[in-house]
Write a structure and sequence with these properties.
438 residues; mainly beta; 5-stranded mixed beta sheet; 3 helices
Length: 438
């Protein structure tokens, strides 16, 4: 009989997660409508074919899958040293009693081998140990050097099957890589896998970069560059390397962000002591000014359906979050709490807004409903800001900076229960999470 996989908590029922108990007649299944206090024990075992050049790729893939699942907070990968059945044929039903003995409630086994064209192929299965049923049987192929992408895809498949939510492991992060002293800080545009692997640089550090943001449906980013003569907005296609500037914009430009369909850019422009929000149609390059108050309006972010823009404004005396229709009409304030709010960004599902809040000498990352209700602070420290959503809308990445130190990247889930550092050897700030890779 399948046991309950995760204990349930009643706190924040609409936003937290749980795995539902299952009977012996139904497959292992996770739902995401209640809180989790006990991650699911899972065994991961990908072997390498003994007769060809796959080497230890099976072990390396297993490690990446385990790390991905552990970082989600929903899974507790079991130490392979505890495995009783170490030799698993992917085409043979496992001895489930051996896996129940070590308290594995799910098992994923597979085989990695090099096919006749020199490509890496990984066949894997996902099993419900207690019902003794196969939940998944899949195969992925890539070049051997891309074994990590296969691992992320396996982790996505397991996550999706057992939680019912879209996975987010086969994604990348663009961010600002920082080095050098504070007075002469070098800020380069950088990119890496969501787990911090494979970092590389997209600019050479000869000018400072700020606020990179992904197009929600492609591997295209927009960012701001501070050059000696001006501030410019760029659009950069990561796959092709093609880069272009966005029109001739008078004044200092800030915080560009794509509309959900990628056809527009919203950004702020500072001119004559005033800062307002504009939208540019990327096909015609025509621009439209959306705000006209004699106050600072910045950090625009489109809702998931493109109908609404949230932004920060101090028109009420302190920085608060406002919303308006995408044509600039219907401006309304949605935050009324103490402290200052900044960097609002809609979740991919459109149901939440992540934000930065400064209050009582500390910074926090929080979430609220799309109408400003139900504010919850997820993390707090000396300095942290710049939230960006994972494509499944459950995790947020941000950067944190200690007094006198270098910034670093962190993730937190929408319950605030699962917080993890993102490994990168240098200073890192202003992350932007990509959509799923295709």
């Amino acid at each position: 009989m399948i046991r309950s996989l995760m204990a349930l908590a009643s706190v924040i029922a609409a936003l937290s997660c749980a795995v539902m108990p299952a009977s012996a007649q139904e497959p292992l299944r996770a739902t995401v409508n209640q809180g989790v206090i006990e991650p699911l024990p899972i065994a991961i075992k990908i072997n390498s074919a003994a007769t060809n050049a796959s080497g230890n790729l099976g072990t390396q893939i297993s490690k990446v899958v385990m790390a991905d699942l552990e970082r989600s907070g929903f899974f507790r990968p079991i130490d392979p040293n505890a495995f009783i059945q170490s030799q698993l044929d992917v085409n043979v039903t496992p001895n489930f009693e051996n896996w129940r003995t070590i308290n594995a409630q799910a098992l994923s086994n597979g085989m990695a081998f090099i096919d006749g064209q020199g490509r890496l192929q990984v066949d894997f299965r996902l099993w419900d140990v207690f019902s003794e049923k196969q939940l998944l049987g899949m195969s992925f192929t890539a070049t051997p050097e891309n074994y990590r992408r296969i691992a992320h895809k396996i982790a996505d498949a397991i996550y999706e099957k057992l939680t019912g939510e879209e996975g987010y492991f086969d994604t990348r992060i663009v961010f600002v890589a920082e080095s050098g002293g504070r007075a002469k800080r070098i800020k380069r545009l950088a990119i890496m896998d969501q787990d911090g692997a494979n970092p590389s640089y997209l600019t050479d550090g000869s000018y400072k970069v700020m606020t990179p943001r992904f197009n929600a449906d492609s591997q295209e980013i927009t960012y701001m560059a501070l050059r000696d003569d001006s501030a410019r907005i760029y659009i950069f296609n990561i796959e092709t390397g093609r880069q272009e500037t966005v029109g001739q914009i008078k004044g200092m430009v800030f915080a560009p962000r794509f509309s959900p369909d990628g056809s527009k850019l919203a950004y702020s422009v500072a001119q004559g002591g005033n800062t307002d929000i504009y939208v540019m149609d990327l096909r015609s390059r025509s621009t439209r000014r959306l705000t006209t108050e004699s106050s600072i309006e910045t950090s625009p972010s489109f809702s998931a359906d493109g109908s609404t823009i949230v932004f920060t404004s101090d028109r009420g005396g302190s920085p608060q979050i406002y919303a308006m229709n995408a044509d600039g009409s219907g401006i309304r304030r949605i935050t009324f709490g103490g402290g200052s709010y900044s960097t609002p960004v809609y979740s991919p599902k459109g149901d939440l807004i992540a934000f930065t809040k400064q209050s009582s000498g500390r910074f926090s990352i929080g979430v609220m409903g799309a109408d400003g209700s139900g504010e919850r602070l997820l993390t707090s420290s000396y300095l942290e800001e710049g939230p960006t959503w994972a494509p499944n809308g459950r995790y947020i990445m941000f950067f944190r900076e200690p007094p006198g130190g270098m910034p670093s990247l962190w993730t937190v889930d929408v319950t605030g229960r699962v917080e993890r550092a993102v490994p990168y050897p240098g200073g890192a700030s202003d992350p932007a999470w990509s959509p799923r890779l295709k």
